[in-house]
Every structure is written in C-alpha cells, then in structure tokens.
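Quick one, T. Sequence first:
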Amino acid sequence: MSQKVIEADYLVIGSGAVGMAFADILLTESDATVAIVDRYAKPGGHWNAAYPFVQLHQPSQFYGISSRELSRGRLEQGGLNDGLNELASGAEVSAYFDDVMRHQFLPSGRVQYFPMCDYTGDGRFVSKVGGQEYRVNVKKKIVDATFLKTKVPSTHTPNFSIDKGVRFMPLNDLPKVTDQPDRYVVVGGGKTGIDACLWLLQMGCEPDKIQWIRPRDAWLLNRRNTQPTDEFFFDVFNAQAGMMESAASADSFEDLFDKLESCGYFLRIDPDQRPEMFHGATISTAELEILRTIKDVVRLGRITHLGSDQIDFQKGSLPVAENTLFVDCSARPVEDLPDDVPVFADNVITPQMVRSYQPVFSAALVAHVELNYEGDDEKNRLCAVVPPPEADTDFAHFTAIALTNQYNWSQDSDLSKWILNNRLDGFSKMARGAEGNDEKMALLNRMRSNGVAAVMNLMKLDQEYKQQEA
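Structure tokens:
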C-alpha cells in the first residue's frame, strides 16, 4: 500500500479538548489549513473513554473551544451543586466536540480530519483500521496536543498485582453491576475516587457499606469560588484576594496551607487529616458533607497486592470481607511529565497549561500567541509552562508561574484585550464589570496589591523546600 501525502500548514496531533481549542483559534484568527490526527473514532480525547456519570469539575462556561458556547447559561437546580453554574455531563461534552468537528471545522474546507489513526512521528501516521500510511507535508508547525495525556479508569492498568477471582472493575463498569456486593471498596483518593463515592451515595448506597482507600488526602478547591458569573463576584474575588494575601505572608508551607484553608480557598474532606496531595480538583460544600458520612477510610499507603482474602499496602495489610467489589479509581490524572519541554521549540508546539487549572484556555492562548508574536523566546515568555500539580508543595511553584504569566499578559494591551473577549477566560469580564462599584473595586485592589509580594514569597518558599529536599 503506497503512502499518501497530504499538505497542511499545521499538523495537530490529538483531537481532545486541547487540540480542538488550539485548532479553533487557527481557524478563526487565520486562514491556515489544519490536519488533525487522533487515535479515537470521534473527537474529544479522553471523554471517549470516560465513565458514564462523569461531569466537568468546573463550570461549562469556560470549557470547550473559544468560538462556541458549551453552557446553556443555567444554574443547577437541586442536587449537590444546587445554585451553581451548570456542569456539562460527559455525554454533553462528547456530543459538543463531535458537533464542532462535523458542523464547524470540516465545513470550513480548511480541516482534514483523520480519526482512528496512530501518529508514528515525523509527520507520519497510519490508519488503525485500514493500515493506510500517511505523511503530512507540514508547511508551518507540528502541534503535539497529546502531551497532557489524561488517564481514565477504563484504560488504566493498576500498578499492583491482583489475584484471580477478585471482583475488581474500573469505575466505568460500576453502573453495570447487577450482583449487588455486600461491600464496595473504592481504590483511590483523587477526583475519580470522589466521583465514585458520590455516585454510590446518591444511588442509595449506605455509607457503612463503602470502604475508601485514600493513600493521601487532597486539598480541594471550593467550586463556589470558580463561578464565572456576576452573582458570584464576591465569592470568586474574596477567594483570590485571600489566596494572594496568604501567599504573600506565609512563612512556611504549613503556614501557607493553614492560611489558604482559613480564607476559604482550600477545603479538605477530613478536618483531622492533613492533606499531602493537590491536583486542582473542585468540590461543592454539599458534596463535601456527604463524603464525610463515609467513616471507613484506609490510610496505609498504596496497595501492593490485592488478594482474595487480604489487601497488602505499603504500610500494612487488611482482610477482605466476603462479597466485596473493588472499584478502581487509582489512575493518576496526568502522567509524570518532563519539566523542560517549552511550549514553542522550532517547528514544534507543545500546548501546556499557562494558567492554573485551565488547559483549554491555555491551548487557545498558545494558538493566539503563535499567530501574533514573533520568535520562540518571546512566545515562551508569554507562555511559561504552569505544570500540573501533584504534591501539595507544588502549589507554590505553579502558582508563582501562573501569576507571573498573568502579569506579563496585563502589560500587553492587545493580549489583554484578546483575553477579555475570549469566552474561555472566565473572569476578566467580571473584573472589568466592577468599574464604578466602590465595594467591588476595593476587593480587586486588595487582590492586586499583594500580587508581587505573593510571587516573590511563593518563589522563596519553593526554593527553600527544594534545598531541604536536595
């Protein structure tokens, strides 16, 4: 079978949220042609393999692509997010990206889309179905939109051994259970584990039937403080001002997290357990309260072996009760990533987060910078990488970078205007709308007045910690 050669200005590898958000800016702000290659049959990346009851963690208003709304502008009615802006379901997100591809990208005449293909490097890919090999003559840049790979339970291989006969399933299969167990054991303390516990509780499972294996507890963000609509102005910016003040004044990491919790920026499930993990997950206070009804929490480190009658951990072992179902939520959200990959490097663009917790906004901004600025040095200055956090101590490093990026953007009037008008930004319009309101402006000034001191002190704390660990 002969190799097919195609031409495009940009080759985008991956049609997940990051790849789609990047391609959208290319299409709306330039006349570039784009080839998009993806291993899934439909766009949406990890949403194709997500568990059926998954929802966005943050409001739909700032997810998706810049040029098309995902949110319907509604508040949740009833449930654990009552009164907060809507969170799109996984099915809604998947349908959204499919619709964008079929009815917006492809009709433009400037997009060639190749689903069910494996990228093999150097502008080459091969169809997973027919075996056809392709080579792209890339006129401008290759865009690796797969760098921030998101793991999901259905494609995750646990890093511990499991005996035959143990009832063990990924979270995806939980709604399919027909043979009701006497006990559910949720394996994993991150956002997926939280979702598993919340689903079981909302489906009527009694809390005492759930055992939750949490090797590390996590600091969590209060979802009320992430609402991008004006009725939540004081929640959002009080939390941001508190974060700035905490970052500027803390004299240690312990002091920093105490202050962040005291001002309402951070939450934790167990008030008596000091968190060691932070992945940027958000939670509502109603969700927090229902999770606290689960009392059987195991903190013996990670599982090393799952047997039919005993679970072995790093710090001990526990017996397995009869008729137990294990639910795997142990996948880390993002693989270990090298910390020296710039966003712009010659003919390769590697979209990464340039603002905390917002990968799609980051991808859109990176694409805008690519189209409007010259030279990799200047582009990387505006797009310094904000690495996904893992441990709680990562907070200082990535927050300092994110705040520095924000300052650099504010010094560029054209870029500031673009951010203000980009729907994925979320909060610039809220801040701009405060003009003329003395109470709101006082709050914004309180937040901004601590910006420089916050960055300097976070960098100091981060450096001191790294020296201690060396």
